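Lab manual, section 2.4: Encoding a predicted structure.

Procedure: take the sequence of the chain (318 residues), apply the prediction step described in section 2.3, and record the output as structure tokens. A sample record is shown.
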Amino acid sequence: MSAPSPPIASPVPPVVVPTPSPQASSPESPPLKNPGEYEEIGKKTKESILPSNFDGCKLVLQKGLSQHFQTSHTVTLGSSSAPSQWQFGATYVGHNKVGENDFRPVLLGDIGTTGNFTGVFLHQYKNLKLRINAQTQGSKWVGYQGTADYLGQDYTGSLTLANPDVISGSVIAVAQYLQSITSRLSLGTELLIQKGGGMELGALSVGGTYKTSSWEAAAKIGMQWYLSYVQKIPNVKELTLVAECEGSLMSGETVSAIGYRYDVGNGSATFKGKVDSKWTIGALIEKRLDPLPANLLISGQLNHINNEAKFGVGFMIG
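Recorded output:
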């Protein structure tokens, strides 16, 4: 009798040693960009969106003499806010490229038949920007100031000295700092010190901006405060709406305004308008006169409370 065959052993499954799954490395966030300068907070709203109304007649003739030198002639007539005069201006732009379409040094000068002179000097060496302003009225100095901006990777520090007088010991000093917190949020502060005339004054303010692809909010809080909100309309990319409010804690005065900017035909015409809490309505139209190298400006402003109206027409050639 044959011996029974041994049972067939079931195959032993291979032992799998669990290996820790590699952690998904989170993508590194891009480095923060320079936020710009503290004094630029809210400046875009006033200069590029809301209308800068004028009255009377204005003619501006610009002539480029070379790639780096340009002159201008400005004639102003019938304005209630400025004397009728002719102004001559000159601009020199250097060879050092510090940014896209941005060259240094820059020299600007403007003098009129009233004897008033304004000069500006701009220069930049690596991360350091310098700006000097001077203004005279006849043979008297009206004001002069110098500003130094240091542009870091994600911050900007600025120092301004205005009208320093060693003999009398008077000066106005302003220190500013703006820091990028995130890719959208920037926060900063400003310290102003004024000395002279037997008194000393100091003021501290804080401010910041929050930017997205479709809207932007800005604020400055101090003795003088400012709030603004800019909204781009998604379906109407040519239209930008704005609301702003500014006031003084010392005087208690507050002015609010809403406005718009509408660009037509790739910049061939621009419409700007606003209405504020003092019931002042302003509008500005700028039309490019193709194929001529000229722009036509029409400005109108009406205050219903004071029953005042201002109207202006201007031409810019060159």
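Check your result against the sample. The chain is about 0% helix and 65% strand.
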